[in-house]
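Input record, target 12 of the design panel.
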């Protein structure tokens, strides 16, 4: 985890839970984002703080600094990111939030893999902790971002051993603050993490495995799993 998620609502559906309009430097857009199958290697709307205001930028999902000679990384472990030589600068100065409806995981079922969609039981959006190379507004020149993950527990481990670090709206806002240091960010993440028992999941169509497929049907329960 996390290798695929859904970001389909309007910007306001996510932003309204985080900050008043005066605290954002983000143009109003009533159109749904409409991405039900977000994959690594694509630009994703990423939320961060600059000049005490929230900004929304399209940032590449995947981190590969110039010296890295392997495929881009898409996740960073919470347990080591804050002290890792590779990730510590991002943890210190490049904290952001990737908002979503939920995420996908695959579980082996015989010789096949069944995809599941995992989301909050109360239907609220999720706010995944992310770290990346700033400034995020660089666009095409950016090295990208990673989603922070933690160990799964309380049932979620039945689907996958890792899950995204999902923060409460209040913790998500604190996580992005520029005046918050790395050590304090660790505490925010630990105290503000949404517990596993707040999530539910259901089997979805195997069509989600093809990154070209989109549509609300990809996150709906399927009557004929693999």
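The sequence produced for target 12 reads:
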């Amino acid at each position: 985890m996390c290798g695929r998620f859904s970001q389909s609502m309007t910007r306001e559906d996510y932003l309204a839970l985080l900050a008043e309009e005066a605290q954002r430097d983000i143009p109003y857009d009533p159109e749904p984002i409409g991405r039900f199958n977000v994959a690594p290697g694509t630009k994703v709307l990423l939320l961060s703080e600059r000049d005490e205001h929230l900004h929304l930028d399209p940032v590449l999902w995947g981190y590969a600094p110039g010296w890295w000679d392997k495929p881009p990384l898409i996740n960073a472990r919470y347990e080591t990111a804050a002290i890792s030589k590779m990730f510590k600068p991002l943890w210190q100065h490049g904290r952001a939030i990737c908002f979503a409806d939920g995420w996908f995981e695959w579980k082996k079922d015989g010789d096949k893999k069944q995809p599941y969609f995992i989301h909050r039981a109360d239907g609220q959006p999720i706010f995944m902790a992310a770290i990346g190379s700033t400034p995020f507004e660089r666009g095409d020149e950016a090295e990208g971002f990673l989603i922070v993950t933690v160990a799964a527990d309380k049932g979620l481990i039945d689907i996958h051993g890792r899950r995204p670090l999902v923060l409460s709206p209040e913790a998500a806002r604190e996580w992005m603050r520029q005046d918050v240091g790395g050590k304090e960010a660790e505490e925010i993440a630990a105290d503000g993490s949404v517990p596993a028992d707040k999530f539910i999941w259901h089997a979805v169509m195997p069509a989600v495995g093809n990154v070209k497929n989109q549509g609300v049907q990809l996150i709906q329960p399927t009557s004929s799993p693999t």
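The mean pLDDT is 92.
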